[in-house]
Specification:
7 strands, 164 residues, four-stranded antiparallel β-sheet, 2 domains, 29% helix, three-stranded antiparallel β-sheet
Length: 164
Amino acid sequence: MRVTLRSPVREFRTPGSARGTPGNRRSYLNLQDMKKLIPWIGGLLIGLILSGIVVLLRSEFLDPAYELVAVSWGTPTSSPDLWLYQIQVVAEDENKDGILEVSAKGCIGASSYYHDFGPLGTASDMGQAVREFGAITWGDDTVTIGGTSGIRASVKRSQLEKHR
């Protein structure tokens, strides 16, 4: 009996069929497939360039209208489990002179109604604005806004709740 080292499957193949004929091999870098990717790569590059331009323009010319100094949520006196009221204290540099004008408003839920506290004062930077206007206190009868320099504004809770 004779021992063969070749596999019976390979024995009946034609020569060169194990890896295909040398002329039919696909190259690793197929230029036809690469040409299909060119529009996609071009679009991606254009998108990246445009988004970079938008970011630069936004940072230079479209500064946010205000910066948030403090925010606090409160409940109506009749429903202590319903967080309905929100006080926002904001600082704006309207004149672009480096002096922040601090103001506040009280928002009522998701409605468009709000109570305008008006201007509270000025600050030289955000740190000073937070120190002097960042404390919002919900009392039984009034809501006060102040900080290290005392109370800057107050409103009666009944005035906030008059939207009903």
